[in-house]
């Protein structure tokens, strides 16, 4: 008995392809010999089962298409960048091989470029506080002190880099190596002597009772000059050994290295986005295959029930697999070692 004012709860609608309904429809059509014994056309309910399954297929296909359409332009952009870099590298590679064949050797780089530039940066950072101490003696504003100190901290190592490259390319290898070998102990020895002077001056200031370092005389000027010379010489030597003696081969080598690094970065991005895109495609295909497999199971259940209740032989349409409308699959991205696109 329903209470006054209460609402009767409506049962949830049964799924169209519910197993009980498939059994009922199969029995009803079988008893009526639907489809006819010689029919090559599927029964109306079988067509409805396929149509119902394809609605879910289209839903999955639409969602996957939206995700793939967002990833596809990014993949194509990275692919164009990769193709452009490969196009730019091709003449450089040919030129490098030709020059290496003329010289009978490949590029000889003693000091790796990554360590070379790391050392230059370290020298510039170390040069900055040294110059800051010196320019504070002028009594200028603090920001001017930093400007002057940073200028020298950048200029001195860079000049050393350019001088090292110039010596490497313009001076014969044997002469350049001899020059570096002679100057290295001289500069290092002078710097060690300068450091000793600074240490002795500091110790003397501690025992004098004032606690202040004396800047009189030429010792301090010599010490600062020796330290700046060490920075300059260190940058020059690092640059000297970070380049090949042959200027043309060295230029081609560094150009190829730079483009190859860019190419690897683009290839990694292409691989990352391409993997996501291929994953979306594979996931969509798997879901669609599962939906169609379930639809095929339902069709088979309907046919078997229909056959059990038929008085006549089953139609030829029951001997064919369920036919699904074709889908236009998305092209995948080829992620081989060369980073080539689909």
What does this entry look like structurally?
The protein has 342 residues and is mainly α. Helices cover 72% and strands 0% of the residues. The radius of gyration is 41 Å and the shape is elongated. Residues 1-14 and 338-342 have low confidence and may be disordered.
Task: Note the main attributes of this structure.
mainly alpha, 342 residues, 7 helices, disordered C terminus
Round the mean pLDDT to the nearest integer and report it: 84
**Multimer state:** single chain
Structural class: mainly alpha
Low-confidence stretches: 1-14, 338-342
* Helix-strand topology string: HHHHHHH
| Strand content bin | under 5%
Largest sheet: none
Distance between the termini: 69 Å
Task: Provide the helix percentage.
Answer: over 70%
Tally the helices: 7
Instruction: Write down the Rg.
Output: 41 Å
- What is the general shape? elongated
- The count of β-strands is 0
């Amino acid at each position: 008995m329903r209470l006054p004012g209460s609402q009767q709860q409506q049962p949830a609608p049964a799924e169209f392809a519910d197993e009980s309904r498939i059994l009922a429809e199969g029995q009803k059509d079988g008893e009526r010999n639907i489809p006819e014994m010689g029919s090559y056309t599927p029964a109306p309910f079988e067509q409805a089962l396929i149509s119902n399954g394809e609605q879910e297929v289209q839903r999955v296909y639409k969602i996957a298409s939206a995700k793939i359409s967002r990833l596809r332009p990014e993949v194509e952009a990275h692919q164009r960048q990769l193709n452009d870099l490969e196009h730019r590298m091709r003449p450089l590679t040919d030129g490098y091989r030709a020059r290496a064949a003329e010289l009978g050797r490949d590029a000889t780089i003693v000091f790796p470029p990554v360590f070379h530039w790391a050392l230059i940066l370290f020298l510039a950072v170390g040069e900055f506080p040294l110059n800051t101490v010196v320019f504070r003696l002028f009594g200028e504003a603090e920001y001017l002190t930093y400007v002057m100190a940073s200028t020298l901290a950048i200029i001195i190592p860079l000049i050393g880099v350019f001088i090292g490259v110039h010596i490497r390319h313009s001076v014969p290898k044997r002469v350049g190596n001899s020059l570096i070998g002679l100057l290295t102990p001289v500069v290092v020895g002078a710097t060690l002597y300068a450091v000793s002077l600074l240490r002795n001056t500091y110790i003397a200031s501690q025992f004098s009772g004032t606690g202040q370092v004396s800047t009189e005389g030429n010792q301090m000027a010599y010490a600062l000059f020796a330290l700046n010379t060490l920075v300059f010489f260190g940058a020059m030597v690092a640059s000297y050994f970070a380049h090949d003696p042959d200027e043309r081969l060295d230029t081609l080598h560094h150009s190829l290295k730079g483009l190859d690094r860019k190419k690897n970065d683009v290839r990694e991005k292409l691989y990352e986005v391409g993997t996501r895109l291929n994953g979306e495609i594979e996931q969509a295909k798997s879901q669609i295959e599962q939906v169609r497999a379930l639809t095929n199971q339902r069709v088979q259940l309907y046919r078997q029930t229909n056959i059990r209740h038929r008085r006549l032989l089953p139609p030829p349409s029951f001997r064919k697999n369920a036919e699904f409308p074709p889908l236009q699959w998305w092209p995948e991205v080829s992620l081989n070692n060369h980073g080539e696109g689909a």
